[in-house]
Structures are given as C-alpha cells and as structure tokens.
Specification:
The protein has about 120 residues and is of the alpha+beta class. The chain has three helices and five strands, in the order E-E-E-E-E-H-H-H. About 45% of the residues lie in helices and about 25% in strands. The strands form two sheets. A three-stranded antiparallel beta sheet has the order 1-4-5. A two-stranded antiparallel ribbon has the order 2-3.
Amino acid sequence: MCDCDAYDRPAVFEEVTRRARKRHRCGECLGLIEPGAAYHESRGLWDGQWSTHKTCGPCYVVAHTLLHCYAFGDLVEGLDCELDLGERGGPARVALAGMKRRRRAAERTLRREAAYEADQDRR
C-alpha cells in the first residue's frame, strides 16, 4: 500500500454528488462530464488555500475502491504505485486503461468541436 502520510489533510472538507448542468472535465482522467451526468465535487481548505475538484463517476469508484488515499489530480500516480508494489495489479491495470480511454475520447470530441467551430468561423 502506498504511503497515505505523504498527503496533507484539509482543514475543512466537503464532498457532494452533483448532476452536471454544463460540461465539465474530470480532474483525474480529463474525460468529459456531460450535462445530465452525475459527478463528485470535493472542496477543501489545504494550507490556507481553497480548492474544488470534480471527478467523474468511474474515477471516483476507482479511487475509493482501489486506493485508500490519493492526492486530487494524482489518481494515475496512485494506481502506478499499486502496480509497482504488485498490489491489486489486475484491477489497477484495468482502471488505468479505462482512464486513458476516457481521456482519448474527450480529446477527440474537443478536437472535432474545435474544427467545427473553426469551419463555422471561416464561413
């Protein structure tokens, strides 16, 4: 198990499940959270700084079932640590593959939308 003591605990923390009214990006896989989809929003006060993190459903499940702790934005690093230690290697490998797939799909969608908008601007 990777070291949980390496992460600072927030002075204040709140986690809620929300339904997206507009498009967001997951802070872990960078996949798109489309309107109508459920996502998890975590807010906290770390070292005097407030921050908010949005996580898609699949990444939230991975984080809370495979890892006991991780720093927001470092889910991939946490899964890599699990793979390096040989703990839960199969599930961690599957989770990483899913995150990469969601990231690639989001990048394709955003490129397609940018190309469409550029084409509309030229007209």
